[in-house]
């Protein structure tokens, strides 16, 4: 038998054994880490929901609302697409007596200056903006990154159906002051918040808007 052939066969066998062992090890690592990772994700969701609903007792996914273009009105689906907004998971916030206090809506904008921006937006059952929690942001330091100190405080307990932004000083409750020098970031936040308001109104129409 050709020596080169035997050597090649041995090398191939060794490679196969290494691949099998590596696969088994990776599978074992996955099984060991699967539950801790899932637990950490669950904690992160709970923390972000609690950030916008600090007084509520629990949060459950909105199982009856399938997040796809078919699940929302044609107009809203088009609006989300045009604004680069994606709605993620939605959680029902439950009060101590088991009643629905509102909804925590995960929203992502692909229109941030530095990439995707992801927030959790809290909206009460009667349509009041309870607040937002920033989950992911990579905007410019000193400009868009000031969203935490400029935009977040302005959203607390706004009773509006939608918001706009202004660069000249807010004159009404449905306006927020833009981040100075970061109009793109401000616009992304406004689009995400308005999307969350619209989606919640489709889940639970506010009296008078149904």
Note the run of SSEs as H and E. HEHEEEEHHEEH
Mean pLDDT, all residues: 83
* Cα gyration radius (Å): 24 Å
- The shape, in one word, is elongated
Percentage beta strand: 15-25%
What gap, in angstroms, lies between the N and C termini? 83 Å
The number of distinct β-strands equals 7
Q: Main beta sheet, described?
A: 5 strands, antiparallel
Trace the largest sheet across and list its strands.
1-2-3-4-5
> Which percent range fits the helix content?
40-55%
Give unreliable regions as ranges: none
How many individual helices? 5
Q: Provide the structure class.
A: alpha+beta
How does this model look, in words?
By secondary structure, this protein is of the alpha+beta class. It has a domain at 58-203. The chain is built from five helices and seven strands. The protein has helices at 3-52, 74-82, 147-150, 152-155, 183-203, and strands at residues 58-61, 85-94, 100-112, 115-124, 129-136, 164-166, 175-177. The protein has a five-stranded antiparallel β-sheet with strand order 1-2-3-4-5, with helices on both faces. A two-stranded parallel sheet has the order 6-7. The longest helix is centred in the N-terminal third of the chain and has 50 residues, at 3-52.
């Amino acid at each position: 038998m050709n020596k080169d052939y035997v050597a090649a066969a041995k090398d191939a066998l060794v490679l196969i054994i290494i691949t099998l062992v590596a696969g088994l090890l990776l599978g074992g690592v996955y099984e060991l880490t699967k539950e801790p990772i899932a637990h950490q994700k669950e904690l992160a969701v709970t923390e972000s929901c609690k950030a916008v609903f600090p007084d509520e007792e629990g949060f459950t996914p909105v199982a009856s609302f399938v997040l796809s273009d078919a699940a929302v009105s044609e107009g809203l689906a088009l609006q989300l697409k045009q604004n680069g907004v994606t709605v993620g998971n939605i959680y029902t916030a439950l009060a101590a007596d088991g009643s629905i206090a509102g909804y925590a809506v995960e929203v992502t904008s692909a229109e941030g200056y530095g990439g995707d921006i992801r927030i959790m937006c809290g909206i009460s059952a009667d349509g009041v903006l309870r607040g937002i929690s920033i989950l992911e942001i990579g905007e410019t330091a000193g400009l868009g990154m000031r969203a935490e100190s400029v935009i977040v405080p302005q959203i607390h307990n706004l009773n509006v159906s939608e918001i706009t932004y202004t660069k000249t000083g807010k004159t009404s409750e449905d306006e927020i002051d833009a981040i100075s020098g970061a109009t793109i970031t401000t616009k992304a936040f406004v689009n995400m918040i308005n999307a969350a308001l619209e989606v919640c109104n489709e889940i639970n129409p506010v009296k008078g808007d149904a």
